[in-house]
Amino acid sequence: MTLTAGTTMKLKLAREVSPYGYFMTDGENEVLMHYTELVGHRPQIGQFYDVFLFFDSEDRIAATMKKPLIQLGQVARLAVADIHPRIGAFLEMGLGRQLLLPLSEQPELKELRPKRGDEVHVILAHDKIGRLVAKVAFEEELAELAFHAPTSWHNTWVEGWVTKTLKIGSFVMIDGGVLGFGAFGFIPADERTRLLRLGERVKARVTFVREDGRVNLSMHQRKEVGRLEDSDRLLAFLKERPNGTMPYSDETQADIIKQRFGISKGAFKRALGKLMRDGLVTQEGSSTKLTEQGAAANAAAASASEESAASKPGAAE
Prior knowledge:
The chain contains five helices and 18 strands.
């Protein structure tokens, strides 16, 4: 029998060696279990115990009674406990020690790499020299664990963890709750409000439930809700501009709109359209400006806000 790091084995407690701990055996090989790795009552010589095998700080195989959050070949979502800029991310694996997710397993762009507190779906594996290491779990591994999203999810907001992020969009494993491990989701690039890191927690709206049980997601509100919020944002922006004018219109390039306002050009045009229909703004070539009605509406809103603040208890008299 081979003692394999990353696995749980039932081994016999062969002998105690003070001040180190106990030697466990499979009948052919022995492995040390330090006193610090005990759980529960004092073990008895000759009894069999389930122990997890790992490599200690000196790269020697060792045993522990502690229960890991992941086993060799398994998929689990592990929290990022620490970051080393030249080595990678260290993940909490439930043993009081951490598991390395090497830089080679992470996105090339630094801003897309996980940070402390993020949670990454990984597989426990061996590196080239046999040490335990985490590898990012991809679609083929996660698909076996995912459940089909119910159609009732349509137009609801869900939360999950980013499993992969690309120029075309980001893949998300949505929380499973009582249903299971999770459901697959995809946020297209134009439905993201910003770039998303690997392992980042994200909240998004289900825009479509596919026949295969996967879902399309958006970080934007529904158009009728988002239009109101976006138009209010544009009005507030214009209020702060000299002469109530901004150098943006429906002729402005989409990437400039995205960078300046954090919304798609389609959302920008919908918000502008509403403001123009309400008579609050007008467009002149590549610029947009407040109308007299729009300026008056902003002034009225500002006055109402000041009156409300003044009427609160404790306001200066």
